[in-house]
Here is the input.
Amino acid sequence: MSATASPETVVRDYYDALRNGDPLEPYFLADESTVKFGISESLFGGGAVAAALAEQTKTTTDWTIESHNPVVDRREGVATYADEVTMAWTDTESGDRHRFDSRWSGTLVPADDSSGPDWRFALMHVSAPHEL
Here is the structure.
């Protein structure tokens, strides 16, 4: 992570951290207002997000993240992002391989400390679309 990373760089760095099995918690705002929606979970509060991400890092491996359409818009004091992502990983407990074509979106805010990236996710939403 760069000392002056843009929101675009932070999103790319987050994808790399996921691929590499690096800690993901530093990318999220440590605040009770932080929210992360995953394909099968809803997490409210920085503590819940950090705990779930630590568990995910412990119990998954071999991540692939293919970004197809990243869009980041930076405005005064906030950035939004959206992307279409093909993601896959292996569950270390069952050995099962999972793969999803997914949609990611969220909000990043400037960090108020130097313990991680310059921008942090305040909201992340990951969903897997299906035909209706």
Observations:
- The longest strand covers residues 78-91.
